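Reader question, answered in our methods column.
A reader sent in the components of a multi-part assembly and asked whether the whole thing could be modeled at once rather than chain by chain. We filled in our standard form and ran it. Here is what they sent:
COMPLEX SIZE: two components
ENTRIES:
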Amino acid sequence: MNGAEALIKCLEMQDVEYIFGYSGGAAIPIFDAIITTKTKIKMILVRHEQGATHMADGYARVTGKPGVVLVTSGPGATNTITGLITAQMDSVPMIVICGQTISPMLGKDAFQEADVFGISLPVVKHSYLVKETEDIPRIIHESFHISNTGRPGPVLIDVPKDISSAEAEFDLSPELDLPGYSYPSYGDTEIIKEIAKALGKARKPLLLVGHGAVLSKADAVITKFAETLNCPVVTTVLGKGAFPETHDLSLGWLGMHGTAYANKAILECDLLFSIGSRWDDRIVGKLDEFCKDAVKIHVDIDPAEEGKMVVPDIFCCGDAKLVIDELTGYCKKLDIDDWVAKCMKFKKDFPLRAPVVEGKLTMQEILKELDRLTDSNVPVSTDVGQHQMFAAQFMKTRKGFDWMSSGGAGTMGYGFPAAIGAAFGRPNEPVIAVCGDGGFQMTMAEMATAAIHNLPVKCLVLNNSYLGMVRQWQELFFDNRLSGVDLEGNPDFVKFAECYEGAKGFRITKSSEVTKVLKEALAYNEGPCVIEAVVDKTDNVYPMIPSGAPYTKMLLEAPTEKLEKPTGST
Amino acid sequence: MTDKNHTISIFVVNKPGVLMRVAQVFSRRCYNIDSLVVSSGFDDRFARMTITAQGDAGNLDQIKKQLSKLVDVMHCIEHDDSNSIIKEMALIKVGFKLTQRAEILQIVEHFACKTVDMTNNSMVIQATGDSAKLDAMIELLRDYKIIELVRTGKVLMARGDSET
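And here is the structure of the entire assembly that came back:
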């Protein structure tokens, strides 16, 4: 057996179903081993390595299992960097295996050589450059262990061609050698009791549930916890599904473009309890004014998140599911009916608005209808921009692992390939990708990948012929000087889809067509489709808290006076 | 400014790339490393790093947590004079005229250092001890001609039962 064959055997032992890959010289031995080992793992040939990483990411986000990517050296490997940082920022488990030039040529500027170990260091949880063929099984098993325990993240393995080609005797299940690696599980019981006490004293408590809760599969536990307390819940964008957004106690998601009712509740709460959220700058706005007088509690599996942004009154390091399960045992119903009623009133008084305007097609009305037709019960991915915010607002998420969006890195081009990966991971379900015309064009070559495998991926392209989010900022903060945002020259997206065999194109141009066309597209499950919706060019996303501003500055609609330039990050 | 000197001891798995991972935790947060000493421990599967850096204490706290999280880091502990022995060594090549030689040797003797090389117009002084002592001696030697100066950077060991 050679190194490459041992590698494939070990992937099988890790229950890998798919490899998202793109071949090339330095990776040929590994691609060869896919055939010589007669493995059951299916190799999905993508059209660009970035697409492979987002597919692996989407696969991981809907299954909870690490997605696997296989690429060649040099440009093949460097094309995975965007996908790696996307996964790293959002704590997604992923294994990226790269071919590399032969060991004796390392550092000699060999053809297609790149120091991918060095280049990728800041964007991985861990990485390996394999030096001995015999080490391959240990490294593969360690990579999966690291990738999907504790706070998940991507692991990169760089395999020189001579190492993958060499014959050796292998121990396929060697001991892991990770003396420096450990991860928290149960929380400290004393701290958990302290949290229970603080909750008991609160008059206006609010739970803030993040992606960590989804990753820990804590959704059922958190629902029980919130119901036990009778406490309202907000989630982060990536926490969507950790608590059903269809639940009475749900206030949707908070932050820059979150629901007004979530943000109103944030302004008034006297205790904010973050479960697996990292207090991202899109959430806190102006850090020193964020929930200034509220007691802050933070549960996180990553000890380095303690005090990174918000300094909590109580921090408990541990797995969300285990901590909340234990905590529920110490809690009882809180006497906070007035507060709950107030939150419900926020929901009633400041609802999300999906305006139907004569002669204008809006993103909101389409997404609201799509949510209704799918009963909020379908895996959804988004790209990045205005449509992402509207999708997060209007596509309700009922359970964990149904929502994919590049929250931390904000990677355009993510949405469509992520949905393809998700369709492999959840084979009997349709998957929806909500994209803008900008992001879709970055990775739309993956239509071939979706079409070949007849995947029922429904890609809704909300086409406003603009990079809408940037245009919105330029309109609000830069006196409407539009620079680098007009996507003049967009293709005909319907024709684009139909030039692939088995793919279909649909178009919506007016409000009256929305329901009919969406129904047709949802009924087409023989292959991928694009639903191009030609929407209002100049619509903006509200509510909006300008970057770096306090929650009191939330805009519910277009401002009537000129705004100051934002002080927060991007 | 809240910036001050911090001395951190990091115990790591002795693998290629560890130094890059550690250095990157500092550089990403715009922290400048003043001195860095790396050597393998008595068990050569592990290595010891002693890092001196300057910066804001809050930021450093985050750096220590991020370092502890690295897969190849066993532990990371900040030390100061009160709980540990912190030493460094310097080699100082001083040029002189013959008439100055005795004066310089007096300085060497005063600081309990020694000369490890001598010619008729230069000597190499080996100085060991606290950084403050080395600084003081170098200051005095500035009256003469310092040709070259090499400092090892700080190494440290925790006192008593504490772990370094």
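What stands out: The CA atoms of residues 97 and 121 of chain B lie 6 Å apart. The mean pLDDT of chain B is 94.
Send us your own complexes using the same form.
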